[in-house]
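Re: the 222-residue chain
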Amino acid sequence: MVGLLRGVYSSDRPVIVEFREREIAGTGIVLSKAEAPSSGMAEAIPIDIVKSVTSEIKEKGRVERGWLGVSIEENEEGKVGIIAIEKESPAELAKLKEGDIVLKIEREEVASTKMLAKEIRKRKPGKTITLKIERNEKEIDVKVKLGEYSEKNVRIELESKFPRLFIVPKPPKPPLVPKLPELRKLPKPPEPPEPRIFSWGLEHRKYIGIYLEEINRELSEY
């Protein structure tokens, strides 16, 4: 066994991890006390798992885990049943159905939901396994080619188990800008009338106010 996890924190509000003392978590045992700050938490993990994980990280840069694509629960008899199947998952491609009871995985009896999940995830993506299921009171062997457990599914699982560790702070709201009153539109000033240009024209007039008459010498002297 090896102590793997012992965190530190400097925040005024430390993360609280709610584990019971010596509770089995995943593939290890938590040695911290209940509701202890994460800085005092330590977890013991089998050395073979640590070696496997570290070597895979060195080789590929990440850990690959098998994925079946089902939701499971234990019924009243303690058997593990399939209650939902994800679309386009290995389980759907293998024709598994809701209501199937998983009895064995690779000839090993399935004792609990945790045991089945652990056995699936410790196998590599692309590996073909044999599941013995019970359907309509008949036992059937089903071969399933495992997919890869994605980072998205890992995060969803961790968020459901440790919600306080994955609280994303909301972005601050932008400051409120006071709404300015709408400006009233001023009425458009009336357009000035076009100037009337006065002009004399003789082409349409028959007379211009004078007339000519012959005069004699006496009148011309005036």
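The radius of gyration is 46 Å.
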